[in-house]
Design a protein that fits this description.
Oligomer: single chain
Shape: globular
CATH topology of the largest domain: Alpha-Beta Plaits
Order of helices and strands: HHHHHHHEHHEEHEEEHE
Radius of gyration: 28 Å
Distance between the termini: 63 Å
CATH class of the largest domain: Alpha Beta
Number of domains: 3
CATH architecture of the largest domain: 2-Layer Sandwich
Number of helices: 11
Largest sheet: 5 strands, mixed
């Protein structure tokens, strides 16, 4: 490194750390790389994006830092590794759900066979006049029992395979602990939400929350299977992104529950945003390839809350969650409070 380059780097370093302290940015390697580049003014687009984000949000959230790093600084290798982890995790989730659905079908099939055996054995006990018919019945019973044994073996194989997939998924989950993105929906995850909400609270930035839950999602999975349920989750996530504006940030909070942070929004504008999302989800239509049935019954319930001056972030989350539960109790597919 030349003397001029060393001096220039030192001057940039002297600017970087105070900037990170000023904006309360954690001193992680990626954040340091982002803010070093910002201080050096080597990438005007990066500086513009950081400035716009801080102006809109009132501070630099951890998710904003992560997103800008991934978009503008991360090497292709970094991006490829992140994509690989996400793809593997999503694949394991899909395989696991396939196995769960197949196991359920196998159990149903075994139940139907058992019922058939009972009927056939009753007919045999009562006695039928034609010996040829009885011979055929006995043959059917014997063949059916073979099918039952085969199904039981197949179910055992599926159980073993599912155990292996579960172990692999857990191993992948360990590697994803430090990730901030949900592998299935590609939204930010709960870990990212907790970091961001803490950042809003620490910097005393006003915000509102939208909590939403897909209505009767367990029943949907039980009826149509987990694969179609995963498809619905992905579509809902896309609707959230499409409806988000003014730096609103969406997160998968867990299962079929999602949460959105809206900076500097009143309760009234938050309710309008939630209504927009509710109507978008209500229009979702998915095709069940097994039955050929088109499903147009996806809806969601919403609870909203705006942070009050003396509240903690936990208080706001609790109020939004309470309103969400009230929306479910009043019939679902609605936003509460009304005013």
């Amino acid at each position: 490194m030349s003397k001029d380059s060393f001096v220039e780097s030192t001057e940039t370093l002297k600017k970087t750390v105070p900037l990170m302290i000023k904006h309360k940015v954690p001193t992680t390697p990626t954040n340091y790389a982002l803010w070093y580049t910002y201080a050096s003014q080597q990438q005007p687009l990066l500086n513009q994006a950081v400035d716009q984000g801080i102006e809109a949000l009132g501070h630099c959230t951890p998710t904003l830092c992560d997103n800008l790093y991934q978009q503008l600084l991360a090497s292709e290798t970094d991006k490829d590794m992140k994509q690989l982890k996400q793809s593997l995790t999503a694949m394991m989730q899909e395989l696991s759900h396939t196995m769960s659905d197949t196991l359920s079908n196998a159990e149903t099939f075994q139940g139907a066979l058992s019922h058939t055996f009972s009927k056939l054995e009753s007919a045999e006990r009562e006695g039928l006049s034609l010996e040829d018919t009885m011979t055929l019945v006995r043959e059917l019973i014997r063949e059916s029992r073979q099918i039952q044994l085969s199904t039981g073996t197949f179910k055992g194989q599926l159980s073993n395979a599912q155990q292996e997939i579960t172990a692999l998924r857990e191993a992948l989950s360990e590697s994803q602990k430090e990730a901030n993105e949900d592998a299935l929906t590609r939204l930010n995850n709960r870990r990212a939400f907790e970091r961001d909400i803490q950042s809003y609270t620490d910097n005393n930035i006003p915000f509102s929350l939208i909590m939403m839950d897909i209505d009767k999602f367990k029943d949907f999975n039980d009826t149509f299977g987990h694969l179609l349920g995963d498809q619905v989750l992905k579509i809902v996530a896309r609707r959230l992104l499409e409806c988000s504006r003014d730096y609103a940030q969406s997160y998968r909070f867990g299962g079929e529950e999602f949460i959105i942070i809206l900076p500097h929004k009143t309760l009234s504008s938050t309710r309008q945003q939630a209504e927009t999302i509710r109507r978008a989800i209500e229009k979702i239509s998915v095709l069940d390839k097994k039955s050929g049935q088109r499903i147009n019954s996806v809806t969601a319930s919403f609870g909203i809350a705006t942070k009050q001056e003396d509240e903690t972030s936990a208080d706001v989350i609790a109020r939004a969650d309470s309103h969400l539960n009230q929306a479910k109790q009043l019939g679902r597919n609605r936003v509460l409070p009304v005013n």
